[in-house]
Q: What sequence folds into this?
C-alpha cells in the first residue's frame, strides 16, 4: 500500500558490521516507510533493531547500502545538512539517555531551546504540557533525571522526543519497563502523535499487543534482513514460520535462541 | 620469519592512527570555538568550575611551594652568605615555573579527570548521541566551552597562585627567618620582570588547553561501560600531565634560550 506513495524513509541494501567486518549485524536491510505511516519493527533481542534505527538517525554509518529521507541520501551527507534533517526528527532511546546534568524540564525542552525559537519560560510551559501527555505531574519539572524511576525516565525521554513536534519519530521500546496501564497510555500517545499530528513513526517493540495497536505495518528483522513486512492485520496469517514463532512467543521453531546449559 | 617486526609495525600504525585522530579532534574542537552558535550557559558553567572551584587546591599548592622555596634557598644560600637572594629565587621560580607547572598538574588531576569522566559517561549512556538527534553538535556543546574555559581561565588561576606563592615565601622569610618585611617586598618587586610573569601565564594558557583537550578527547572516545570510563579518566590525567611537562620544556626553550646562549 504505502510503497506506492513517495517513501519518507527508504533503506535499501543496508549493511552494517562491527569488529572490523567480523560481526555482521545488518546484512541486507530493505525497508520503505511511507509519509505519515507508523511502522513497527519486531525481532529477537540482539538482531539489530536499535542498530537499524541508529543508521537511519546517522549515529552509525552503514558499511554499504543507501538510506534516503525525503528522497535525500543521508549516508553521505555533510554534518551540517544532517543537522538540518535532524531538526525534523525525534528519538526515544532504549535507555532514555537523559542529560543527567540538566533538570527534567530542560531535558524535555532541550530541542526547543537549541532552536532558540522560544524563551526559557515558554519552553518550560511546553515541557510541562508534554510531561502531562506522558502522565507525569508538574512536580517532576525541577527534579534531576537521577531522582526518577526507570519508567519515569523513559517517559521523560518520550516527552523529549515529541517536544519539538517532529515529522519523524523513532521510539526504541517505548513501553518496556512500564506497567500495563501506563503502557497503554503511551500506546495511545503514539497513535495520537501519528494520526492526529501526522508524524511518521518508527517503533521498535517486543510487545505484540503494543505492536498491533500502534503499527500500520509491521516488519520483522531476522538474521540481518527484513524477512517479513506487511499490514498489521496480515501478521496472523503471514505464512511465515519465523513470524508465527515470534508473535506466539514459542521456544521451539525455526528461530534458535542461543541458550547454553 | 618476519614475524618479530609485525607487532612493532602494528603498534606504530596504531600510534599514527591515534595521533591522527587526536589532531583531527583538536582542529575540529578549535574550529567550533570560533563558529556560532555559542553555548553561553555551558561556557559559564566551565568558567566557574575551572576559574573558581580549583582555586583552593591550586592556592594551597602554591602557598606551600612558596614556603618551601624560601626555606630551601635559605639553607642553601646561607653557605655563601647570599640570603638576600631568597626573594629573587622565590619570585622567579614561582612565576616562571612552579605556578604554571604545579597549577597545570593540579588542574590535570582535578579538571581533566572530571571532564573525561563526565563526557565518557555521556558517551556510554548515549547522551552524546541524544545531543546529535536534538540537532546539537556535541563538539560545540561539550568540547568547545571546555576548551575555551580552560585556555582562558588557567592563566587567571595561575596568576592568583603566583601571588599566593610569593606570599608563602614572604611568610616564611619574615616570620621564620627574621627578614625585614619591607626589604623583602622591595627585593621581590625589583627582581621581578614582566617577561617572568607573562611567560608563566602563556604557559598556563597552553596547559589549560592541553588539560581540557585531553579530558574531552579521552571522554569522547571512551569505550563501553564503567571500565571504559575509568580507563578514559586515567588516560586523560596521565597524558595531560606528560604533555604539560613536555610543553613546559619547549615553551621555556622558546622564551628563555637567548639568555642561555647569550
Ligand atoms: N557499538 C557496537 N559495537 C559492537 N557491536 C555492537 C555495537 N552496537 C550493537 N552491536 C551489536 O549489534 C547487535 C545488535 O544490537 P542492537 O542493539 O541493535 O540489538 P536490538 O535488536 O536492539 O536488541 P534488543 O531488543 O535487546 O534491544 C548486537 O549483537 C550487539 O552486540
Ligand atoms: Mg535495542
A:
Amino acid at each position: 500500500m504505502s510503497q506506492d506513495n513517495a517513501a519518507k524513509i527508504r533503506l535499501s541494501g543496508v549493511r552494517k558490521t562491527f569488529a572490523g567486518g567480523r560481526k555482521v549485524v545488518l546484512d541486507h536491510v530493505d525497508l520503505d516507510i511511507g509519509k505519515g505511516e507508523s511502522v513497527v519493527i519486531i525481532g529477537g533481542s540482539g538482531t539489530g533493531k536499535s542498530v537499524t534505527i541508529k543508521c537511519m538517525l546517522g549515529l552509525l554509518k552503514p558499511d554499504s547500502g543507501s538510506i534516503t529521507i525525503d528522497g535525500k541520501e543521508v549516508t553521505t551527507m555533510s554534518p551540517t545538512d544532517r543537522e538540518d534533517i535532524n531538526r525534523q526528527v525525534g528519538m526515544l532511546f532504549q535507555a532514555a539517555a537523559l542529560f543527567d546534568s540538566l533538570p527534567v524540564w530542560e531535558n524535555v525542552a532541550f530541542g526547543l531551546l537549541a532552536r532558540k525559537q522560544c524563551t526559557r519560560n515558554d519552553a518550560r510551559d511546553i515541557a510541562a504540557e508534554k510531561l502531562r501527555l506522558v502522565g507525569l505531574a508538574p512536580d517532576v519539572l525541577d527534579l534531576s533525571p537521577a531522582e526518577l524511576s526507570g519508567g519515569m525516565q523513559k517517559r521523560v525521554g518520550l516527552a523529549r522526543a515529541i517536544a519539538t513536534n517532529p515529522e519523524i519519530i523513532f521510539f526504541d521500546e517505548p513501553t518496556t519497563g512500564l506497567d500495563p496501564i501506563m503502557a497503554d497510555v503511551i500506546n495511545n500517545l503514539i497513535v495520537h502523535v501519528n494520526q492526529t499530528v501526522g508524524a511518521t513513526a518508527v517503533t521498535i517493540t517486543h510487545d505484540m499487543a503494543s505492536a498491533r495497536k500502534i503499527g500500520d505495518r509491521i516488519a520483522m528483522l531476522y538474521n540481518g534482513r527484513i524477512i517479513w513486512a506487511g499490514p498489521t492485520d496480515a501478521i496472523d496469517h503471514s505464512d511465515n514460520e519465523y513470524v508465527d514463532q515470534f508473535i506466539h512467543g514459542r521456544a521451539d521453531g525455526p528461530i534458535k535462541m542461543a541458550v547454553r546449559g | 620469519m618476519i614475524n618479530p617486526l609485525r607487532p612493532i609495525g602494528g603498534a606504530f600504525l596504531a600510534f599514527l592512527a591515534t595521533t591522527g585522530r587526536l589532531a583531527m579532534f583538536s582542529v575540529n574542537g578549535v574550529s567550533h570555538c570560533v563558529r556560532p552558535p555559542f553555548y553561553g550557559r555551558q561556557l559559564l558553567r566551565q568558567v566557574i568550575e575551572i576559574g573558581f572551584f580549583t582555586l583552593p587546591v591550586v592556592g594551597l599548592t602554591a602557598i606551600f611551594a612558596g614556603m618551601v622555596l624560601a626555606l630551601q634557598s635559605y639553607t642553601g644560600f646561607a653557605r655563601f652568605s647570599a640570603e638576600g637572594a631568597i626573594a629573587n629565587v622565590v619570585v622567579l621560580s614561582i612565576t616562571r615555573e612552579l605556578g604554571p607547572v604545579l597549577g597545570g598538574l593540579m588542574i590535570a588531576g582535578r579538571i581533566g579527570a572530571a571532564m573525561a569522566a563526565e563526557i565518557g559517561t555521556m558517551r556510554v549512556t548515549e547522551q552524546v548521541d541524544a545531543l546529535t538527534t536534538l540537532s546539537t553538535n556535541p563538539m560545540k556543546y561539550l568540547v568547545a566551552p571546555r576548551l575555551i574555559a580552560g585556555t582562558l581561565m588557567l592563566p587567571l588561576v595561575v596568576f592568583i597562585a603566583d601571588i599566593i606563592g610569593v606570599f608563602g615565601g614572604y611568610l616564611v622569610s619574615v616570620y621564620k627567618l627574621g627578614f625585614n618585611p619591607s626589604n623583602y617586598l622591595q627585593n621581590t618587586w625589583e627582581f621581578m620582570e614582566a617577561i617572568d610573569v607573562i611567560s608563566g601565564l602563556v604557559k598556563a594558557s597552553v596547559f589549560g588547553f592541553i588539560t581540557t583537550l585531553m579530558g574531552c578527547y579521552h571522554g569522547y572516545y571512551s569505550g563501553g561501560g564503567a571500565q571504559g570510563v575509568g580507563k578514559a579518566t586515567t588516560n586523560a590525567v596521565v597524558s595531560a600531565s606528560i604533555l604539560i611537562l613536555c610543553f613546559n620544556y619547549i615553551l621555556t626553550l622558546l622564551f628563555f634560550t637567548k639568555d642561555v646562549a647569550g
